[in-house]
Design a protein that fits this description.
Helix content is 29%, strand content 26%. α3 runs antiparallel to α4. By secondary structure, it is an alpha+beta fold. It is built from five helices and 14 strands. The protein starts with a strand and ends in a 38-residue tail after the last strand. The chain has a five-stranded antiparallel beta sheet, covered by helices on one side. Strands 5-6-7-8-9 form a five-stranded antiparallel beta sheet. A hairpin with a 5-residue loop joins β7 and β8.
Length: 291
C-alpha cells in the first residue's frame, strides 16, 4: 500500500508521496510513487500513484508514448484537462491489455492516480484519476486529494487546509498527515518525496526526498504527538449527573433520562438480582445515602 496527498492552493500546488510497496516482518520494499513531466518555462506536471505497482508503472510508460486522436501528446496538449484525459486513456489501455489476465490469478485491476500541474496559459489544476480512467478535478470545495491509506491523515487536512494557505503551511500539514498515517499503518513508510510548486514558475524549484535523517520531518515526528497529548490533557474530563447551568463540561444533565439499547437475556438465563441503579453525586458505591 502507499499514501499520497496533493493540495491545490491559491498560490500553487503541494505533492507528497511515500515509497512503501510491501510491508511485513520479513518483506519491506520501496519504490518512488511520484514522477514529474517537465518542460521548463512551458509546462510542469506531477503524477503520483497508489495500488498495483506494475499497473501504475505501465500506465506511466503509456502516458509518455500516447498520441491521442487529435495527434497530441502529454507534451503538446494545450490544457491540463486534456493532459488528464491522456492519463485516463493510458489507464484504459492498460486495463484492456492486462485486466482479464490479472483476473485469472485473482488480482484486481487496482490503480489510483493524482495528476496535477500547470501548462503555460492557464492556472494550476489538480485531478484524481480512477481505475476506470475517469477523473474529477479539485475545486475550492475540495482543495486536496488523497490516494492509498487516506483515512489516518485526513482529519488534519480537513481542519487546517484552505485555499488561502501558503505552500509552506500546506507542506507542514501534508507532512503531519503523512506522519499520522505512518504511525498507524505499517504499509506506509519512508523515504518521502515532497514537491512544492509555485504558480507560474513552470519548473521544479522546491523538491526534497525525505529520509529518517531529515531534520524537519524528525521535528514534526517528535513534537506533533507531544503537542497533541498536551492539548488532550488540557481538556476537562466529562462531568456526569450535574446541572449544566451551574457546572461546566456536563456530559449527562441531572434528571435527564438516557438509556442504552439493551438486549435482555432469555428467561432461562435471567439474573434474579435487581440491576444496580445509576450512581449519582449523592450516592456512594454501596448505594447507601451519604450525609
Amino acid at each position: 500500500m502507499t499514501y499520497c496527498v496533493a493540495l491545490r492552493l491559491d498560490s500553487g500546488l503541494v505533492f507528497l508521496s511515500d515509497s512503501r510497496t510491501n510491508a511485513g516482518v520479513d518483506h519491506v520494499a520501496t519504490a518512488r510513487k511520484m514522477s514529474v513531466f517537465e518542460n521548463p518555462g512551458e509546462r510542469l506536471m506531477v503524477f503520483m500513484t497508489a495500488g498495483n505497482l506494475s499497473i501504475s508503472q505501465s500506465v506511466k510508460q503509456v502516458i509518455g508514448e500516447y498520441v491521442n486522436a487529435a495527434g497530441k501528446t502529454i507534451w503538446t496538449v494545450a490544457t491540463m484537462y486534456e493532459a488528464a484525459q491522456i492519463v485516463g486513456e493510458a489507464v484504459r489501455i492498460i486495463y484492456d491489455r492486462e485486466a482479464a489476465k490479472l483476473e485469472k490469478f485473482g488480482i484486481d485491476f487496482n490503480v489510483g492516480i493524482i495528476f496535477g500541474g500547470q501548462i503555460k496559459g492557464e492556472g494550476c489544476r489538480l485531478f484524481q484519476v480512477y481505475s476506470a480512467g475517469n477523473f474529477i478535478e479539485s475545486l475550492n470545495e475540495n482543495t486536496y486529494f488523497q490516494i492509498g491509506e487516506a483515512k489516518y491523515g485526513k482529519p488534519i487536512l480537513d481542519r487546517v487546509v484552505k485555499p488561502s494557505s501558503t505552500l509552506d503551511q500546506a507542506a507542514k500539514c501534508a507532512l503531519i498527515s503523512m506522519d499520522s498515517t505512518m504511525r498507524s499503518n505499517i504499509s506506509v513508510g519512508l523515504p518521502l518525496d515532497l514537491l512544492l510548486y509555485g504558480e507560474d514558475t513552470l519548473a521544479v524549484t522546491r523538491f526534497v526526498t525525505i529520509d529518517e535523517k531529515n531534520q524537519y520531518f524528525q521535528m514534526i515526528h517528535e513534537n506533533w504527538g507531544k503537542q497533541l497529548t498536551a492539548v488532550f490533557n488540557g481538556l476537562a474530563d466529562p462531568v456526569w449527573n450535574a446541572n449544566p447551568d451551574t457546572v461546566p463540561n456536563v456530559v449527562l444533565a441531572k434528571g435527564s433520562h438516557n438509556e442504552p439499547l439493551v438486549q435482555a437475556p432469555p428467561a432461562a438465563n435471567a439474573n434474579p438480582a435487581q440491576p444496580v441503579p445509576l450512581q449519582t453525586l449523592a450516592q456512594g458505591p454501596d448505594s447507601k445515602e451519604q450525609h
